[in-house]
């Protein structure tokens, strides 16, 4: 995504126009214009988090936010100040997301679409990229906050399990639940944003809560920062994975742990099938390297596997790890490499001595 403020030549207007095109607005190219840029840009991270929860896609969320900021820039002269700038931006972002969701696409995880596949029947069948819930770097969706409780809610609300559960809600219920439960808006504020009644908002929230109770799986119990026990567990995981030590890996996995591999709809449950897959169909990952990253409020790693020519390590997957009760319960491996590594700001190769 391009920055909100585009670089312009002398006398040209600046603003968040898509593709770097100039868009005139009151004060554009002046100190006032720069102030507008800064005020809008200051909301980018929280708006990206909101749109990601709504859409389940990292790239669609960033597109939605860019569209939101462009619309705000173009219409800043119409902003009458009856609400805060933040509320106005959320109104625009909500409308952008609802328009995008009108196509009916609903993001999912492999575990939402099929049952687990026994190793003996494992086959790698890809589905289109718009089927899948996508990972998201924490830094793009989690604003810095001082309140530990608020930070914990924000992390929980971008966990894969929670975002996947949100996809089961109709779009407006999804918006109501996020605004009320995650962002702590008042019912009257949400009603004004959606141009509906408080009673309608409360009813939608009640229905959304009921649906989430039925669909949301346990995301995990990871502390922030990681406590000493969790840190040691992840260090042992890295050592076992890089050493391709299946006995050591088995000791770290919950007996009902799952491994998913979008864009393939195959997913595996249980230590035997997971390690069996890794030593057969996944054997090319032996000798890999894992680089810590932060994704979806969870521990995560960039997975580089050995290059075929022996010259180093090449991107392969972003792994998002679920941890619960002192064990690893989920290994979610997003294999669509050309998309994820640039999103996370990761290098396109590691040297042979990494």
TrEMBL record:
NCBIfam families: PRK08241.1, sigma70-ECF, SigX5. Keywords: Sigma factor, Transcription, Transcription regulation. Transmembrane segments: none annotated. CDD domains: Sigma70_r4. This is Sigma-70 family RNA polymerase sigma factor. Residues 42-103 form the RNA polymerase sigma-70 region domain. PANTHER family: ECF RNA POLYMERASE SIGMA FACTOR SIGG (PTHR43133:SF65), RNA POLYMERASE ECF-TYPE SIGMA FACTO (PTHR43133). One of its GO terms (molecular function) is sigma factor activity. Residues 160-212 form the RNA polymerase sigma factor 70 region 4 type domain. Signal peptide: none annotated. Belongs to the sigma-70 factor family. ECF subfamily.
């Amino acid at each position: 995504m391009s920055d909100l403020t585009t670089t312009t030549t002398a006398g040209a207007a600046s603003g968040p126009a898509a593709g770097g095109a100039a868009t005139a607005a009151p004060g554009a190219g002046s100190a006032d214009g720069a102030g507008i840029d800064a005020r809008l840009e200051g909301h980018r991270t929280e708006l990206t988090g909101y749109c990601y929860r709504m859409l389940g896609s990292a790239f669609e969320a960033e597109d939605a936010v860019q569209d939101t900021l462009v619309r705000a820039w173009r219409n800043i002269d119409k902003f009458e100040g009856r609400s805060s700038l933040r509320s106005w931006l959320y109104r625009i972002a909500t409308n952008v997301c609802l328009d995008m969701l009108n196509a009916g696409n609903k993001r999912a995880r492999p575990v939402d679409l099929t049952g687990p596949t026994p190793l003996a029947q494992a086959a790698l069948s890809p589905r289109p990229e718009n089927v899948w819930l996508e990972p998201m770097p924490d830094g793009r969706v989690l604003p810095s906050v001082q309140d530990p409780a608020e930070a914990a809610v924000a992390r929980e609300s971008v966990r894969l399990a929670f975002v996947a559960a949100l996809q089961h809600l109709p779009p407006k219920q999804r918006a109501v639940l996020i605004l009320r439960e995650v962002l702590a808006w008042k019912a009257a504020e949400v009603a004004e944003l959606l141009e509906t009644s408080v009673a309608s908002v409360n009813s939608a929230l009640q229905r959304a809560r009921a649906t989430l109770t039925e669909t949301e799986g346990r995301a995990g119990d990871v502390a922030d920062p990681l406590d000493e026990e969790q840190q040691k567990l992840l260090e042992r995981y890295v050592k076992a994975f890089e050493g391709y030590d299946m006995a050591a890996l088995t000791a770290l996995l919950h007996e009902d742990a799952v491994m998913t591999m979008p864009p393939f709809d195959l997913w595996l449950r249980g230590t035997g099938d997971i390690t069996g897959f890794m030593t057969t169909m996944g054997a090319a990952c032996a000798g890999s390297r894992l680089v810590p990253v932060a994704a979806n409020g969870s521990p995560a790693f960039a997975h580089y596997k050995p290059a075929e020519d022996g010259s180093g390590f090449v991107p392969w997957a972003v792994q998002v790890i679920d941890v619960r009760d002192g064990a690893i319960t989920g290994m979610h491996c997003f294999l669509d490499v050309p998309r994820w590594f640039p999103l996370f700001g990761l290098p396109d190769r590691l040297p042979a001595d990494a």
